[in-house]
Amino acid sequence: MLEAIDITKQFKKKKVVDGLNMYIESGETVGLLGPNGAGKSTTISMISSLVPPTSGDVRFRKQSILKNPQELRRVLGVVPQEIALYNDLSAKENLLFFGRIHQMSGKQLQKKVDEVLELIGLSEQKKVITKHFSGGMKRRLNIGASLMHDPEMIIMDEPTVGIDPQSRNHILETVKRLNQEMGMSILYTSHYMEEVEFICDRIYIMDQGRIIAVGTKDEIKSILSAEKTLTIKVEQPNEKFIQSIRQEGLVKEVQSSGNMITIVIPKEVNLFARLFQLAEGTETTIQSIEAQTPTLEDVFLHLTGRALRN
Amino acid sequence: MFNAFLKKQLLVFIRNPEVIILQLVMPIVLITILGFALGGLFEGEKSPIEAKVAYVSQGNEEDDIEEFKTFLQKSRLDPEAIAAIEGQIKTLLPLKILREDVFENDKLKEFVHVKEVEPEKLTKLKKNKDYAVIIEVPEKFTYHFLMSVFFPSEQTSEKPELKLYQNEDRELASQLVADIIEDFQHQYTLQTALAKIGIPMNPEMKQPAESEVSIQSISAVKSVSAIAYYTIGISMMFVLYVASMAGTFAFAEKESNVYTRIILSRASRTSYLMGTFISAIIIAFIQLLILFGFSFIAYGVKWDDLSSFLAITICIAIAVGGFATLVTTLNYRFHSQTFSNFFSSIGVTIFALLGGTFVPVKGMSETVAEIGKLTPDGAAMNAYLNIYQGYGIETVIPQLVTLCIYGMMLAVIGVSIFPKEVRQ
Ligand SMILES: Nc1ncnc2c1ncn2[C@@H]1O[C@H](COP(=O)(O)OP(=O)(O)OP(=O)(O)O)[C@@H](O)[C@H]1O
Ligand SMILES: [Mg+2]
């Protein structure tokens, strides 16, 4: 339905997005995951026709939107990362305005406003001026404003940044409903793994302007399926112990912080006995060892050698 | 869709406390302070309209009368008729009436200062623009006049008519004098016309009426008190802040990405800017009504000619709409608030100084006064002052046109240079 073909965005000399390919099919929920500064917002601006790419093409239903974005704009809702609302207008007035600029009016408009207020859970606060809202309420209204014209596809740029867990859950549930009950296609951007895991069918992982992994949740995790992660808790941090683990041929990665040590090993290897041996040899007391199935966080770590958030 | 922008913009204006303070509280405080502090200054002054009139006589009234009397003697009229006519001459002499009754009228003397000047100096007079009006009496004026009254059928030479040279720089004053002279001229041509169709004249009946007309047009001129002056001046300054406010709001709109939503909604740039234009007009108009209304209630600054007052108010509001549109566009085009800031700090101040918000431009140099008149403040102040003093709407048409041109031109420029792509 919407695809980005080899798009690049260059500001001055810096390539912020570099040869990115991406597509969203009708009815799909797609996640775009990446750390701060990865180029997520820039990518979104390009595929929603707000910023032209330096090179490459964006196509909606096989037609390039670079020259003619109107068809896409008609069916697209965008929730910007920054809250894009009139602070001096009430929730209802904001929605009325965004409905009107989409050429809605009269009963249809009123009905849609009530519907959206209901969906984002702000019916009772509809007369409250936006600037008096909490961060979470503003975020909800920010989403609501993009739903006024019944978009077929909605692109959300980190819609849950900086809000309380309750509002966050409400938003995540709402987004799921938009897809499941109303059949909207969704492109959801975040640097929170759990959110993307919860909402999306398919995930793009982005870092430094490039897509470094793509696939369904399971496909992506299977990148790591040949491996498993063990978390070892020790009584006292001990550098000798860590060194001795590193020297074990089968161990792929070792990370430590405080008295926790994380190691990555091939799936079929059983290292428990060997670890206790090593601990004894270096006079370390192991309190516990846990095996974990990989998370997206691990995938990111695996692919980039860095944590997603620091 | 433009409707959506209009409603939104009005709400944004109304909901902002800064707007209330900047647009209403500050000007009211300033009007009050300046009005009272400088009140004495204004009262000590003469009326703002002062007309220096040069009176240049090319002929000689006495000689003309003698010539007419000679003509009388030669005519075939019987001695009794001749005696009657000679008796009437004295009461009829138009120049005498002009000098002694019109110019010496006490009320008129407050405004109009007449000086007799020798004919040789006429060319020089016309060049240096010292006088508001020069009245030139052509040669044999009185003779022709008397002939046209008593011997309309024998009239061969030109119509007796006074020549007026109006100084355009002193529009107000010169128009005033011109009106008086015109009235006067009208009166005596009426007399000659009546004489021509044989209706006997009754000079005693005509004369008082004639002076009446002149005095009426004089007493229509209301003097401008300090508080009235500053109500106009300060309002003209602060109404411009509507434009910088609109620019500020627009910039916030862009920065907060609301404008992104507007682009995505496929609403046109023109309807967006039209919303800015019209809302600024409405806000400016309401602001002025409140300021002038306050000044009327609190300080008795009353507008006798309400419809002319409203016409000017609409025109300055349109000019403000133009500025609002342009400032908005420039903020967008250059991705910064520099333009609305510049406009509110430097632009408004310069306009106010040149326009005469603080000191009447009359006191400044000619060039400054000329430029001042072309500023929106200056044009509007000029128009308001004229109407306030009782002049008709026709005297302020140029100012109204100036204001509307400002509004339309700036709005068109604003729309045409609004960026197609809006960078984030
Ligand atoms: N207009 C611009 N001019 C120059 N550099 C820019 C511009 N916009 C973005 N960048 C740079 O491009 C990089 C990617 O920015 P972008 O906002 O797309 O990242 P992001 O993944 O959305 O990050 P975040 O999670 O913080 O929102 C950043 O280093 C940013 O500084
Ligand atoms: Mg971003």
TrEMBL record, chain A:
Residue ranges spanning the membrane: these are none
Which branch of life, at top level? Answer: Bacteria
Kindly give the SMART domains that the UniProt entry links to this protein. AAA
Keywords (A to Z) from UniProt:
ATP-binding, Nucleotide-binding, Transport
Indicate the segments forming the ABC transporter domain, all copies. 2-233
Q: Does the keyword Isomerase apply?
A: no
Q: What is any Pfam family matched here?
A: DrrA1-3_C
Q: Which GO MF terms are attached to this record?
A: ATP binding
Protein name (Swiss-Prot/TrEMBL): ABC transporter ATP-binding protein
The species this protein belongs to is: Cytobacillus citreus
TrEMBL record, chain B:
Cited InterPro entries: ABC-2_transporter, ABC2_TM
Q: Does the keyword Chloroplast apply?
A: no
Q: Transmembrane stretches, by residue range?
A: 20-42, 227-251, 272-297, 309-330, 342-361, 396-418
Tell me which residues make up the ABC-2 type transporter transmembrane domain.
Answer: 19-414
Question: Where in the cell does this protein reside?
Answer: Membrane
Is this entry keyworded Iron?
no
Q: What is this protein called?
A: ABC transporter permease
